Structures are given as structure tokens and as C-alpha cells.
Amino acid sequence: MKILVLITLGMSLLFGAVDINTANTDELSSLNGIGSKKASAIIEYRKSNCFESVEAITDVKGIGESFLEKNRDNLTASECKPKP
Fold first, then answer.
1. Do residues 76 and 17 lie in contact, with contact meaning Cβ atoms separated by under 8 Å?
2. Do residues 76 and 18 touch, judged by C-beta distance below 8 A?
3. How far apart are the first and last CA of the chain?
4. What's the confidence (pLDDT) of residue 81?
5. Does pLDDT of 5 surpass 70?
6. pLDDT at residue 3 above 80?
7. In 3D, which of 60, 76, 58 has the Cα closest to residue 68?
8. pTM
9. Nearest 10 degrees: CA dihedral of 28, 17, 55, 22?
10. How far apart are CA 9 and CA 21, in angstroms?
11. Has residue 27 been placed in a domain?
12. What residues are paired with 75 via a beta bridge?
């Protein structure tokens, strides 16, 4: 099962960028330098904020410019939707 998940995640990176406004933990963890703890921090941050741009991911504690530069080509930020 883990192999299937890894293959799926690898294919998503080949064919499309990870949307930081909608990605789940597994998708975020596929990024260079993101483990489950940072993926959870991104999702937690997203509950009360929206990433208006890819650069805004550096607003999450523990994620800096070096992460952004390594992953910029694999990231996207979809349009922010109003919170209900």
C-alpha cells in the first residue's frame, strides 16, 4: 500500500504542482524538506489563513526561504475561497 501511495505522489509531482491551499498531508509530505509534522503545520495554518501566493508558505513556522527555493517549481497556490 505504501508503494502505491509513493508512486501516486511521484506521478502528481511529474504532472502537476502541489497546491498548498488544498493538498493533503501525503501530497505535502512529497515535497523536499516536508515531513508529516511540517505538513500538519501547513494544514493547521490553512484552517485560519489562505496562501495568496506560493511565497506565503514561509509564514508557516519552520518553513523558510531555502525550502521555497528548492520547491518553487513544484508548488502552486489556488485562488483563496471565503471561509464559511
1. yes
2. yes
3. 35
4. 79
5. no
6. no
7. 58
8. 0.78
9. -50
10. 17
11. yes
12. 18
CATH number at residue 52: 1.10.150.320
The range of the structural domain enclosing residue 62 comes to 2-76
Per-residue confidence (pLDDT) for residue 68, from 0 to 100: 96
Q: Per DSSP, what are the bridge partners of residue 19?
A: 76
User: The cell 471565503 sits on which residue?
Assistant: 82
Place of cell 506565503: 56
H runs (alpha helix) in the chain: 2-15, 25-29, 36-46, 65-71
List pLDDT tens digits, range 9-42.
Answer: 555 545 579 999 999 999 999 999 999 999 999 9
Residue 83 domain-assigned (yes or no): no
Sign of the CA dihedral with 22 first, then 27, 30, and 34 last: positive
Task: Please give the distance of CA 30 from its chain centroid, rounded to a whole number.
Answer: 8
How many domains does the structure of the chain reveal?
1
